[in-house]
Q: What sequence folds into this?
């Protein structure tokens, strides 16, 4: 999970100007000082792939990548993304960066109802991109912050492990 600037002082402010890059596109916008990133993405930018589940940072459905590290959109304020890069499921799907993970999720039935899938896929992307997914135990540890009520995680771990192996050229 990414660390955000804890010194950002929003006391007494109604709105804040931000400059950011979301899914590869530069964006300048005035945002509500206390609006959560997930709400901003969904309501203002119509990027509805970022789901809201628990709204307490526990379920992982709202996971986005903030400067290439996973972050909870329900715990991050839109005001905190100024100067940062945000990638959502829509951006990484459109540019093909998730294609192998999406295919593996489909092939292994790891996306049953689909509600957790965007958060799982972004977490998986970070895992395989950083090489952290070196064992099933590592994958399970990182995924422990994402809840799925349908699959029992076996299929998700299988999908991520297969992609990690393929990206490593079978050297795992």
A:
């Amino acid at each position: 999970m990414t660390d955000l600037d804890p010194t950002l002082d929003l006391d007494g402010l109604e709105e804040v100007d931000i400059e950011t890059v979301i899914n590869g596109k530069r964006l300048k916008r005035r945002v509500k000082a206390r609006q959560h990133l997930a709400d901003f993405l969904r309501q203002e930018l119509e990027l509805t792939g970022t789901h809201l589940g628990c709204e307490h940072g526990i379920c992982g459905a709202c996971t986005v990548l903030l400067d290439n590290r996973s972050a909870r959109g329900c715990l991050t304020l839109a005001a905190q993304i100024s100067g940062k890069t945000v990638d959502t499921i829509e951006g990484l799907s459109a540019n093909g960066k998730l294609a192998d993970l999406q295919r593996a999720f489909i092939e292994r039935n790891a996306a049953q109802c689909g509600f957790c899938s965007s958060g799982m896929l972004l977490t998986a992307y970070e895992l395989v991109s950083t090489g952290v997914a070196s064992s099933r135990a590592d994958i399970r540890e990182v995924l422990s912050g994402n809840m799925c009520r349908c699959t029992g995680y076996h299929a998700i771990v299988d999908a991520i492990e297969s992609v990690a192996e393929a990206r490593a050229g079978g050297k795992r």
Notes: Residues 106 and 159 are 9 Å apart (CA to CA).
